[in-house]
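Posting for a labmate who doesn't have an account.
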Amino acid sequence: MSKTASVDPVSMRTDEVLEKLRAVQRPSRHAPNETNLAAWRSELEKSAFGWETIGRRFMLKASELRDKIKAIDVLVGKARDTSSNQRSASTPALISTNSVTAFPGMPILDPDAPPDLRHTRVIAACFASQTATGWNKLVHVAHEEAMSQLGSSGALRGVTKSNLIAGRASSEDTKKGYRYVPKIDVSIQNVSAEHAWANTLRLARHLNAEVRVDFEWMRKSEAAFPGEQGHLSWKPA
């Protein structure tokens, strides 16, 4: 009497899954067979990650281009105001009512909405009566003035947006960009030009102190306006 071969229900379900996978995947001699599904999944995961990475790069590039477009809009507006022989009775959006006069021919930019400040260098800067030679040096002198008015590091921490460490920074903290400011015995973390200006402007308003910066964009393709100059300032009303 012949025996009837038994059918494994687990094998049947596995075969059904494989058939569905074959139906939705493009035929390819490179695709792993049913005995190597883990490798197949790994290949698909790598491919998906690659496309996600490319997408993020496109989004970052688009964001950079939008920043440059905004900066161009600001300077184009200034050029139109300068070319006009008649001044409007209202203050142009480009010029802050609290700005001081810049060097002749240097655009006076809105301190609250400056263009992209990456790849810029400071020509001249001052906070209250102290001068500075760079963006982060400007942050330092602003904190020195703040300490002289507020009297304590605790009060200083209450008004600043900069990252501070009491005393001299360790070697590890130095690697993170902290620089020692001996006059006030604190170390302040270096930041980008954009953040340096924003942090300094915040202190200027809190202390009711005048701040001004004359700067220029480096002659680099990554700069918003290679070779051009600008002026940012604020003073008490």
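Reply:
Got it, the structure tokens are right above this. The two ends are 109 Å apart (CA to CA).
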